[in-house]
Amino acid sequence: MLKNYLKIAIRTLWKNRLFTAINFLGLSLGLGSAGVLILFIQRGVTFDTFHENNDQIYFVQTETKGERYNATVHPIMQQLIRTFPEIEAGTHFQGWNDVWLTYKGKNIQGNTKYVDSSFFDIFSFKLKYGDPKTAFKSRQSIVINQKIALALFGDNNPVGETVSVSDTLNFTVTGVLDRVPENSSMQFEVLVPISLLEANEGFRSGADWYNTFSSVYLKIKKGTDIAKLEAQFPQFGKTHFDPAAGERQLRIEKLENFIHYDNPGFKWMIYGAIGIVIFILLIISINLINLNTAIAFTRAKEIAVRKVTGSNLKQILVQFWTESAIVLIASLAFALILAASYLVPQFNEFRQGRMQLTLSWEQDYMTVIALGGIITFIALIAGTYPAVYLNRLDLRDTIKGKLSNKTHSRNWSRGTMIVAQFVIAFALVIGAIVVRKQVSFMREAKTGFDKENVVVVQSDLEYRDTKSASIQFKSILNELRQDSRVQSIATSAVVPSKYWSNYNTYMADGAAGAEVRIKHSGTGPGYSKTYGIKMLEGRDFSEEIDKDGKNLPVVINESAMKALGWKTAVGKRIRQKSNPEVYTIIGVMQDFHYQELKEKIEPLLHWYNGPAGLSSYLSIRLNDIGQAKSVLAGLEGKMKKIPARKPFGAFYMTDEISRQYNHLDGIWKMVNFVAILAIVIALAGIFGLITLAANQRMKEVGIRKVLGASVQEVTFLLAKDFVILVLIGIVIGVPVAYSFESRYLETFTYHTRLGWFTYLLVGCTALLLTFLTVGFQSIKTAVMNPVDSLKSE
Fold first, then answer.
1. CA 532 to CA 490: how far, in whole Å?
2. Terminal CA-to-CA distance of the chain, rounded, Å?
């Protein structure tokens, strides 16, 4: 019996091969794209949930004036464990510096995190080699990932081997990490005991009860009433926080929520992906159902004959389901190949290194099952609807071909689905244009500083002898100052687009006033000149005037001055709430965008780094950017003479400003791909329907031509219904697209808008494509010899 169903199904699909091909194309592209997005959604909704004791793992937050951030004071972990018996264990996960590892002359630097010995008691990261229970039994233990292990030890098991850390200490490798899941907020390559960092004087000086820069994780005992535990935190804070911390509050939050505080836009990406998947599935389902039901009318007599010969509804349904299943299974197989070979790599490129997708049956079987469930549902709907409808038709009318009085409701529902397709397609096209225009706006917007003709050299190359390197570097700076191609230079710890997320609370010295949370970092002489930052009053740092900086000069921006409640600031003195040192304001910069335009300009303070010398960055303003290559080549040759671990690196500031919006390029490419996909599938569906309509009305067209109808009139007759449906879809799509535009752009502090002309242009383009699609088949039918169409019966 099954063999018979398959034989008839294959014959029917081949007979209607144009429509089979359209369905196969739409389903393959749609299911492949939906599958990749479902994979992304699955990774997103399970972010940080793979740990065995996930429901017990919390991270510590700080809340100030209603705003939470994922950092706290360093000493808090041990005190929390001592104070609250509900807390079973805790660990730091501290970034500070990435250590260099050396083994038998091989050197490599890895993304380093400093942790406590209880790290593997809390988290379930797997080890390829070693025992997580004893990995940090010794203070001289180190755990590395497979990339580091391969670079230093090849394919050998390195557990028990000794490596040199930053040329000063010897550590024993006690574990090699298995792959860290992409949907983990904790990404690292090297784990080192926190005791090594706590021995660092620079770290210890800030590791107090005021500065909040530590990442702390806790394992809470099962059955603990979290609300009751948190109710005790205010008193804990009053007892232990530095008095200067003010109204600071201690909070804890589940690990799975870390990503949503660290990246508030992440959930909207998940919602957006879910919306796009729904759109894709709607479009391919509408196409499949529309074409299947349209083709079904050509099979009305076949169904009637089947019923006369004894077939029941179940047998008719199985036949239609078999045909739908063949197309869907073939489409799914091709979709999986397409996803693995092209769509997943492209999606990873869109993501710019964030949460990359990898395919593995162990992790992704649920996605495949979900896709299988989706195609089963689509197959049932696409096969059931036309079968049930045709089964209800009167046998006598069906055999005689009298279906015209039965098809009005069917045409109406088919038209509704075409409208829905174009509403979705129109909204997606507008969405792609909105994202693209916003990215272009941010890249081209005035930033408040001059990014042209500036190259930046990464001057912190991990020099082996810092003292000697500093002397040689100052000589290089003096030569640059004498270079006629160079306008100005500046050394600094930060440059625009690379400012730290480093804040402190400042207030006016000796007088009651506002307490302002200000982002601060170090720069040197010539910074404002090199970047063309306008000084509203006062001056920037000067080696001649400020010398060694003992007078503690600082420069603030306009936003900081306003936040402090001042109309003028030069000469005024401020201090940090936690520090008795008093700083003198020597200049006020005009506000400039030192971070993405998505964020508002915050109060900013530059402290004096001292005379130009070794720092993180060397910024060079040139007379002509065309001279950059020769200047950099000469500079590279000189800096290579200074023994260092890192290679010479430099970038153009214009490129760096553009690069910070690359992640939005990824979103645009994804939406753009889906929009094109929606248009192609929708137009392919319309092409199939107009072809079928033309074939069904072939005799009518022949009679009209015999009676004198022109080619234009016949073309209009066949095409008008489809063009009207698309026009209705565009009209409905305008408010839908406008709603998306408004909601998306609201997430940016500085944004652009689309004009009415863009909506009009997209609408006219959609109509033109529709007319070309239906017009081709309509004209082809209209120019046929009426004799051929009339003798077909």
1. 12
2. 34
Are the C-beta atoms of 108 and 189 separated by less than 8 Å?
A: no
- Which residue, 70, 89, 52, 47, is CA-closest to 253? 70
Whole-Å CA distances, 287 to 594, 681, 685: 48, 7, 6
Does residue 119 contact residue 91 with C-beta atoms inside 8 Å? yes
In this predicted structure, the answer to whether residue 302 has a pLDDT above a threshold of 80 is no
b (16+ CB within 10 A) / e for 124-142:
ebebebbebeebbeeeebb
Contact 724, 731 (CB under 8 A): no
Q: Which residues contact 681 (CB under 8 A, 6 or more apart)?
A: 25, 26, 29, 30, 283, 284, 287, 421
> Parallel, antiparallel, or unpaired for β 604-608 and 106-109?
unpaired
Question: What is the pTM for the complete model shown?
Answer: 0.80
The candidate with the shortest Cα–Cα distance to 10, out of 485, 363, 484, 329, is 329
The stretch 130-141 carries a mean pLDDT of 90
Closest CA to 424 of 279, 285, 281: 279
Which of 61, 74, 82 has its CA nearest to residue 248?
A: 61
- Residue 267's nearest CA partner among 41, 5, 586 is 41
- Judged on CB neighbours under 10 Å (0-12, 13-18, 19+), 483 is middle
Please provide the average confidence, as pLDDT, over all residues in the chain: 83
Token digits for 638? 């000189």
User: How many CA within 13 A on the CB side of residue 484?
Assistant: 0
Residue with tokens 């397609």: 425
Q: Three-state DSSP class for 62?
A: strand
* 307-316, 448-457, 655-664: range with highest mean pLDDT: 448-457
- By the 8 A CB rule, do 253 and 62 touch? no
The two beta strands, 162-165 and 57-64, are unpaired
Look at the block and give the residue holding tokens 């600094």: 492
- pLDDT at res. 405: 43
Lowest mean pLDDT among 525-539, 555-569, 714-728: 714-728
- Whether 175 and 132 have beta carbons less than 8 Å apart is answered as yes
Write out the two tokens for 474.
């100052």
When mean pLDDT is compared across 428-437, 573-582, 699-708, the lowest value belongs to: 699-708
